Amino acid sequence: MTEALHLMSREPLLEVRGLTKHFRIRQGGRPATVHAVEDVSFAVDAGQTLALVGESGCGKSTTGRCVLRLIEPTAGTVRFRGTDLGTLGAAAMRSRRRELQIVFQDPLASLHPRMRVVDLISEPLQIHGWPANEIPDRVDELLALVQLGAEHRSRYPHQCSGGQRQRVGIARALAASPALVVLDEPVSALDVSTQAEIVKLLVELRQRLGLAYVFIAHDLAVVRQLADRVAVMYLGTIVESGPAAQVYADPQHPYTRALLSAVPIPDPSVERRRRRIVLAGELPSPIDPPSGCRFRTRCWMAEPRCASETPALLPRDPGIPDHAVACHLVGTTANRSPGPVPAPHDAGATE
Ligand SMILES: Nc1ncnc2c1ncn2[C@@H]1O[C@H](COP(=O)(O)OP(=O)(O)OP(=O)(O)O)[C@@H](O)[C@H]1O
Ligand code: SF4
Ligand SMILES: [Mg+2]
Q: From the alpha carbon of 55, which atom of ligand 1 is closest?
């Protein structure tokens, strides 16, 4: 293999560098800036799943939308198969979008209420120029792929259950054979048993079709089963990223430790010893994020320099180069300090 070919094969499917998104808004009649996403970088290899995890408002959906260029980033680059999507015109981007798809949290809001399932699944095929005579067979194939019976073809979204609607949303995303799907909290609106079914389906589809996912979720429990890599977001920035097994087994950032402390552990003897970390204070506004480390107003280990110096996302240990953490205290004994515990009346709280 020539050097050039070798380099090409090592290139990630998706590479996001320095992604930043600011929204200009008016607040109380004055202009203001929402710092929704700040200098976010990550990569996803073909067939792999990156879980993007963090609490409400931390910028997960904005990141997902920038990746698909449904909204334009303020700064940064999104490369897909080595092409900087920011350099593509509208027509070239439309054809690229065949390979880059999104599934939304709420299928009822994202599916047209007056379209039948068969038309909802046909629509993306028509948009991407699928031969008209092949569309009926392709729709049947997609219904089978998401395990919906032929009886669903002529139903409207409101005649389907929440799980069935999400299967339709997935079939639409898969219609034109994408390589990467952004799943924006695809199971958050579903009950627990339906969540498990849809996650199982997504795992099977990934394997069968060789898909890559960016799986957006609020908590680390949902993505445990399918994440290859995890990136934890807090107030628009990635505070920790690495191989999922590494992040779950040995979380380094205090925010990741707090998030993980809320995840039940299947082994009852380990579960009994699980210690909840309850974060103090409110999530600050992205209109006026804290200086230095954005997590410092809720960090039980914050030092004076945390207010003046922004910690870079750096490998935690030269021996584990792809596990990166943004905290001044990584590798110090102070970082092992246990977090605040729940007050007795508040033991059921998740954060
Ligand atoms: N079009 C917009 N105009 C102004 N502010 C916006 C816009 N879209 C998002 N925001 C703000 O940007 C921040 C990040 O929002 P985003 O929807 O990306 O968060 P999220 O992590 O997906 O949250 P959730 O878990 O609730 O879906 C929030 O403060 C949100 O209010
Ligand atoms: S940099 Fe400082 S405030 Fe931020 S997480 Fe580390 S110790 Fe806490
Ligand atoms: Mg969101």
A: 25
